[in-house]
Amino acid sequence: MYNKKEYNELQNKRNFFDERASSWDVLYNPQILQRIHSIFNQYLNCLEPPLLDLGSGTGILIPEIKNRFSDKDFLVVEADISKTMLKEAVNHHQSDGVLYTQADGHNLPFKDKEFNSIVCFQVFPHFHDKLRVMPELQRILKPHGYLVILHLMGHKELNAMHKTTGNAVKKDKIIPAEKLARQLSGFFSIEYIAEQMDLYLIIAKKTADELAT
Questions:
Q1: Alpha-carbon gap, residue 62 to 47, rounded angstroms
Q2: Tens digits of residue pLDDT in 79-92
Q3: b/e map of 50-74 (b: 16 or more CB within 10 Å)?
Q4: Tens digit of pLDDT for each residue in 161-177?
């Protein structure tokens, strides 16, 4: 599944996020939460449950997602490599319809065609082999389901931030949204791309033609 180098990198990242879990929510002040709300309102009305929040951290997106679905339809899976992050999410967001699982995007423990939507919020640079993650995301997404890759800054700003954040993530980078979208186009139909200093957004759709790939 992993070679020794990959396994050590994964362990280092898991430890990095475990250590920061208790203070993670401080990064998301009311202004940032309002900005997330505005992005969802403007761009992400396409999302439908069941939804996978991959790289979910402490569950920052749970209230935003929950407000979009009726209680009857609400089903969200919070998945993260950090068990401590997930524990914080459980403590902060006790809600019916939310499931929590420790998982790595390179080898997802889900059935084929299990989700109508996948949101990767602030996580994509941390995948060491993004081309290995893409077919996994395609596999677990239902026909005509949506994949969203979202960051609150552009790729240059993200890469510069990670470079100074800590050894475990200093090499975690993401390429420009247009280039990443071209890579994703081998697995999905690209619906929307935007990148600026304070936004990185790709919306992709799994179409019927891609089911055979």
A1: 13
A2: 999 999 999 999 98
A3: bbbbbbbbbbbbbebbbebbeeeeb
A4: 999 988 889 999 999 99
What predicted TM-score, i.e. pTM, was given to this entire model? 0.94
Question: Is residue 99 within 8 Å of residue 77, measured between CB atoms?
Answer: yes
Pick the CATH number of 4-212 from 3.20.20.300, 3.20.20.80, 1.10.10.10, 3.40.50.150: 3.40.50.150
| Cβ-based neighbours of 41, under 8 Å, separated by 6 or more | none
Longest pairwise C-alpha distance within the chain: 45
Domain spans, the chain: 4-212
Phi, psi of 182 (to 5 degrees): -65, -40
The DSSP bridge partners found for residue 101 are 79
